[in-house]
Design brief:
Belongs to the nephronectin family. The chain has 4 domains: 33 residues, Laminin (Ribbon); 79 residues, Laminin, CATH 2.10.25; 31 residues, no CATH class; 39 residues, Ribbon (Laminin), CATH 2.10.25.10. The termini are far apart. The strands form 9 sheets. A two-stranded antiparallel sheet has the order 1-2. It has a two-stranded antiparallel ribbon with strand order 3-4. A two-stranded antiparallel ribbon has the order 5-6. The protein is built from 3 helices and 18 strands. By secondary structure, it is mainly β. 7% of the residues lie in helices and 40% in strands. The relative contact order is 0.08.
Length: 197
């Protein structure tokens, strides 16, 4: 089967028909499925949509059970956790719904971990890390754009000279480089390529 438009988060199942991986939807499986909007709702109390998935958390005084339900916990109610808690050996501990969140100084609310600045967010060589609340994603470096090439998505160099997005002087020629461009004054002119006299 050939899918000319590509299947971003899925696989080609028939001529131009994509079978999306769980958590994704759309003709090319490029849209995140908001599981929190599904019927029946996947979480008993509160739901947080994430890229390709979702997280459940409970109201104050309840704790999240492995099956996604919320069980009453009187001791948890006293602690007043933002996203629910667990009891370990009589100790009450607040929880965060994502590995990209950590407990703040008050040990009750969750604060974001910036995976990009801590180095936890690993992106391939021509992509840059963009931090989000509770997670991160990889985006093409400046001067590159996401294109579907020979069966998969890749970050491809933008030719600013062809796209005419360069700022070269009228009397200069544009030279495309990987991820950028250079301007060179034409013969008989001198300058830095942006200003030629």
């Amino acid at each position: 089967a050939i899918c000319g438009h590509g299947c971003k988060h899925g696989e080609c199942a028939g001529p131009n028909k994509c079978k999306c991986f769980p958590g994704f939807t759309g003709k090319t499986c490029n849209q995140d499925l908001n599981e929190c909007g599904l019927k029946p709702r996947p979480c008993e109390h509160r739901c947080m949509n994430t890229h390709g998935s979702y997280k459940c958390y409970c109201l104050n005084g309840y704790m999240l059970m492995p099956d996604g339900t919320c069980a009453s916990s009187r001791t948890c109610a006293m602690v007043n956790c933002q996203y629910g808690c667990e009891e370990v050996k009589g100790e009450v501990q607040c929880l965060c719904p994502s590995s990209g969140l950590q407990l703040g100084p008050n040990r009750r609310t969750c604060i974001d971990i910036d995976e990009c600045s801590t180095g936890k967010g690993v992106c391939s060589y021509n992509r840059r890390c963009v931090n989000t609340f509770g997670s991160y994603y990889c985006k093409c470096q400046l001067g590159y754009e996401l294109k579907y090439v020979s069966g998969h998505y890749d970050c491809v160099d933008v030719n600013e000279c062809v796209a005419n997005t360069h700022r070269c002087n009228l009397h200069a020629e544009c030279l495309n480089t990987k991820g950028s461009f250079k301007c060179k004054c034409k013969q008989g002119y001198r300058g830095n390529g942006f200003d030629c006299t």
